[in-house]
Structure formats: C-alpha cells, structure tokens
Amino acid sequence: MNPRKTLALGLTACVLACLLLFALDVAMGPVTIPLADVWSAITGGSRGNESFARIVTLFRLPKAITALVAGAALAVSGLLMQTLFRNPLAGPYVLGLDSGASLGVAIVILASGSLAGSGAGGASFIAGAGWLAGLGAAAAASLGAALVFILVLVVARRVDSAVTVLMLGVLFSYGTNAAVSILISSARAEKIQSYLSWTFGSFSSTRWEEVAVFAPLVALGVALAGSIVKPLNLLLLGERYAESSGADPARTRSLIIASTAILSGAVTAFCGPISFIGLAIPHLARLLFGTSDHRTLIPACVLTGSACALAADIVSQLPGTGISLPLNAVTAIIGVPVLIWVILSRSRGQGGIRL
After folding, report:
1. What angle do CA 305, 308, 17 make, to 5 degrees?
2. pLDDT at position 86 over 80
3. For strand 116-117 and strand 124-125, is the pairing parallel, antiparallel, or unpaired?
4. In 3D, which of 244, 271, 284 has the Cα closest to residue 82?
5. According to the model, what pLDDT value does residue 216 have?
6. Can you say whether residue 35 is alpha, beta or left, with left for phi > 0 and alpha for psi between -120 and 50 degrees?
7. Percent of the chain at pLDDT above 70?
8. Phi/psi at 119 (nearest 5 deg)?
9. Residue pLDDT, tens place only, 200-251
10. What Å distances lie between residue 260 and 158, 248, 254, CA to CA?
11. CA–CA gap between residue 40 and residue 48 (Å, rounded)
C-alpha cells in the first residue's frame, strides 16, 4: 500500500479511537450517563436529563478535555527529550521540571497550609475559594517549573553537550526533591496527605477556567515542536551531523527545552506529575507508524498520547463503582507492559534499542 495512504489510515484510526474514548470518558464514571444525554448536553438540546447535563458540562467535559490535552502534551514532550538526548528512556520530566513544580506546590501546601487536598484524585483547592485555588496551585507549580527551566536553559546555552544538560537536569531534580523532603519532615500529617494526593495526578481537578489557560499553553508548545521538525530529524544522526547540515544545535536545543518546559510544566501545574505516558507513547508511535520522521511522529504522538490518557482516566474512575484509583497507578499499569513490549519488539527486530 502507498505509504501516504497507510499514514492517513493510521492517523484516521487514531482520531476515531480518540473520539470513542472521549465519548466514553464523558459518559462513564460513578454515574453512567447514556450517550444520547451526553450528546444532548454537548449540543445544548432540551430533551436530555438536566442533572446529567450539569454533570457533563460542569465536570466531565473539562476532565475529558484535560485528559486529551495532557496526553498529547506529555507524549510530544517525551518525544522531544528522547530525540535530544538520543536516549530511549528519556521522558518529559528528565530535566527536573516536575521536581520544580512539586517544590512550588509543596511550599504552598506544606509551608503555608493554604491548600487542602481533595482526596485520591489529587485535586488541590483552597478551602472555600473555588476555581481560583486551582489556578493558585497551578501558579505555584508553574513558578517552580519555570525556575528550573531558566536554570536548565542558561546551562544549555553555555555547554555544547546534551549529556551535560541531562546530568544537570538530574542534579536539579535531586536538589528540589531534597527541599521537598525537608518540608515534609516538618509538616503536619494532614498537610503531608494533601501534598501526596496532589502527587497522585488527576485530570478531574480542572474546570473551564483552568482549561482556558491549559489548552492554549499546550497548543503553543506543540506548535513550537512542529516548527523545528527538520532540525529534530537531523539530530537523530547526531549534533555534529546536524551542524554540518546547516542546523544550529544550540538554538535547536534551546527550542526543544522551551517546548518541553511549556508542555510538561503545564501538565504538572494543572494535573500533577503524570507518569509513563511521556516515556512510553513515543515508542508506541514509532512502532505503530514504522518511522522516526518527526513530521509523522509529532501528530502520531498527539493522537496516541491523547488516547492513552483518556483510557487511563476511564480505568481510574472504575465506572459504576463509586471508587477511584490514583491516576499514576493506572498509567503505570498501562505504560509498563506497553514499554516492555515495545523495547522487546525493537530489540528482536533491530538487535538493540534505537530511536
């Protein structure tokens, strides 16, 4: 079959999978809502159940959109990191941005105690403050991630090796984690529980006000990644080859780090640290589409990442039981077997793990 037709069919299948999972994510939960009522609520029809319409429009639609957007952001940022470091185990948080975000939230929760956890879902809100608290938690996480990003970007402009940037990112992560540990050691039990709830990750803590900030940030990050497709492809053959082909490795590295910071920082700020999606999905996209060309991989990661995040959100809600699981536990349950399968498949087919 023509490669273009194969690509079109693959992307179409991913789009259909996202639409199906999106509908199921909105319909399923502690209370199962018929798809007809979901459609009526989305389109503003007058024949649907009013209670169902409120649940859909106020809670489940923002949650499903958040999952859709977060999955795309994590997958694309993971792809960028794996390309930059030419390391199959690099993920969106390898630069320590999640640790910086965690430190920002930890300072607000553990030091000031102004945020209160909302349970296993991981949403954090200022008591009685409504959606403004969600933005407050996001602002704290964003500030922490931004500080680490600035440090990494300064380093990236001063060194010639991506490996050095990686090592310093790991060191920044250790440093911020140490600060969080100090805060935990001196905090009260209820504050620690509130912080731990945030670390579980959740797509359900956002409302329309947060989505209106979150979605454009992710769109900006993905657009920035799409603007450097050619240098990304050249980097697959090494920085020296990229430079000899006319690319500027230092500029490309800075743009990759900026895009990753926007994408992973926004997800961590609004959803908490979400594991495994950014690590596993780029491998899955390469395997499904049989290419390392970023012109294909970026849209493939957007779609497969969104589908995976929606599936994880559905599973975490345990539809019909009234019980919810920590989102990061579900992403690990889904991501670990996928990652093992991808690694073993590539090892058998190519004699080793390659990007």
Report:
1. 95
2. yes
3. antiparallel
4. 284
5. 93
6. alpha
7. 86
8. 110, -165
9. 889 988 889 889 989 999 999 999 999 999 999 988 887 777 778 877 877 8
10. 19, 18, 10
11. 6
Structure tokens belonging to residue 222:
């993905």
pTM for this model (two decimals): 0.84
pLDDT, tens only, 312-330: 999 998 877 777 889 999 9
Dig out the tokens for 194 from the structure. 């509130």
CATH number of 3-350: 1.10.3470.10
Q: Note the pLDDT of residue 65.
A: 96
